[in-house]
Amino acid sequence: MIKLFTYKNGGYLLKKVNNTPLRKRIITAMNTLAMIMVFFIMSGNCFAGDIVSIKVYPEHVGVFTTVGKQQFVAFGLDAQGHATNITRDVDWISSNTTLVQINATGLATIGTGITSGQVKITCSYPKARSAGGIVAKLLLNSHKVTPSISAGNGTIAPDNAQSVKNNATTQFTILPADGYHVDSVAGTCGGNLVGTTYTTDTITTDCTVEAGFALDVLTVTPSKVGNGTITPDTPQSVNYGNTTAFTVTADPGYTAAVQSDCGGSLVGDTFTTGPILKSCSVEATFTINTYTLTYGSGSCESISGDSPQTVNYGADGTAVEAVPAAGTNFTKWDDESVANPRTDTNVSADITVNAICEPN
């Protein structure tokens, strides 16, 4: 009797063929070994009790198939090394049924949602004199890469766990929110950030990518022109969106003004910026005050000299003289000054006066 094993639908099927009438069919089967496995076994050695060891194929599965399934086949060997397909007779066992389940036909299937892990598949044939069988080891084909934000405001995309094939890499786009910058990209995957793209190192196990964002710190630079002070007078570090203030004090006889691309306003001697959205500057300008000297003829006939006069703070005006009409004399100016001609010195305010003349 010849026992013929053929592979069909993930398992080996046993067919009994009569040796004499079907000789021609047997020869054809042996000539197509790529499709059929033929074992010549003595009929007296095919009983279950004669099996002394078990052989499992494939012996090792380095990467689980992309469809998430793998078919295993078990052969029982007798003392002479003859093989019998016992795939459907053995007890199949998965070391972790959450990761991989295996049914009675030797078909192993990855559990729902499983992306990584390692499991051992074993089989045993209770009637064999030598218990147990060769262990087949499955290494699943992908790992879980989990992104997250560890600090600050920004985004990482994609933002959900990614299934990545073993020894492959994956990428994330990391974008800070307005006023923030990427402070660090950490986690257990390792990798490199170029621009806004973070590429992991080769993935060989489950790992994480953690993006950290920090608030921008901007610089506000003060300066001054003219006689006065601005305090503080050194560059100030200001967090994005915050404001800062400076005290602007003009020297006597000067007036302060502020120009700034930071926004803001001067109230009294305090300049407060607007919200700082970029590095910017504050310039205090101190301008000398000017005053007007106005001289009127009053009851006199005329004034000799310039009127009005524009004079800087602390400077002197030029001489003016009240000219009386005939029959009158100059008496005084209406600010009680009797100088004629008069020159106002060290000017610090506007002056408006009229001359007074009286009859002889």
Folded structure, characterized:
The protein has a four-stranded mixed sheet, with no helix packed on it. Strands 16-14-21-18 form a four-stranded mixed sheet, with no helix packed on it. Strands 15-17-20-19 form a four-stranded antiparallel sheet, with no helix packed on it. The N and C termini lie far apart (about 165 Å). The protein has four domains: about 40-140, Immunoglobulin-like (Sandwich), CATH 2.60.40; about 140-215; about 220-290; about 290-360, no CATH class. It has one helix at about 25-30; strands at about 1-10, 10-15, 35-40, 50-55, 60, 70, 75-80, 85, 90-95, 100, 105-110, 120-125, 135-140, 140-150, 155, 160-165, 170-175, 180-185, 190-195, 195-200, 205-215, 215-225, 230, 235-240, 245-250, 255-260, 265, 270, 280-290, 290-295, 300-305, 310, 320-325, 330-335, 350-360. The longest helix is centred in the first third of the chain and has 8 residues, at about 25-30. The chain has about 350 residues and is mostly beta strands. Helices cover about 0% and strands about 50% of the residues.
